[in-house]
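Sanity check

After download, print the first record. It should look like this:
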Amino acid sequence: MFHSGELAVQQRLGQAETAAHVGRSIRSQIPAVAASFLAQQPMVVLSAADPAGRLWCSPLTGPAGFVHAIDDTTIDIDTVPAADDPLSAALAGDVAVGMIALEPQRRRRMRVNGTSTARADGLRITTEQVYANCPKYISRRHIQEIAAASIEPVWRGTELTTAAVEMIGGADTFFVATADAEGHADASHRGGNPGFLQVLSANRLRWPDYRGNSMFMTLGNIAVQPRCGLLIADWSTGALLQLTGHAEILWDTEALTAGAQCAVDFTIEQIVERPGALALRWGPSELSPVNP
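Expected structure tokens:
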């Protein structure tokens, strides 16, 4: 069920027995409750590798029902990434993907890993892993409006701009793209109080990893495959910050903040800033009461 990286992290943190128990909830089929949950969502976040092997995280949005299960192992998404999205080229063909559907209003989320195939005006995902996650560290927020697509220019570079540093400093939520040694992709969520995602330099970030479901899929992937991608959003303006690079797990207690079981250092290789690219505009957050 778990690959070598996940097993190693579970053992190191003394969670192997818990992980084995929780892991029983992972299935390849889509339960009816999961299908219903997906059909209600106006946004999902996908992760995949581009043709050069770089991992990216991107949001896709649409009216409720734009993501829907057509049978117990197949999900259709009735949209594709914009041309300026770094995942656009990757999702034009068959590719391993991770997907997370996050519902901040009710602090709910579910994850899907599988293979995406391009279809007319959308994507089709064949599922390999489907499972729910606990509500820990999810900031509650509500949609305030749906905006038109942005026509502002996209900026690409290798070092964080002042605007990017400010966005990161205020973030209480971000998404992580990882993959195992065989390229199976995963998309996950990280949440905490603003400032928990730290800027160490113009091309290096760090975040604390808090205890979650004990399966350690993100950390396990990083342990065997350091390529990684991050997605950070300004929920009020729709600005997106998409980063790709590589990650390293830090076990040294001197690097840890309160409540963290380890930390992750992320070295940036490429940056994409997309002002106004997220059509949904969200209100202020209510931070999770379990944040350290």
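If your output differs, re-run the checksum step. Summary of this record's structure: The longest helix spans residues 4-12.
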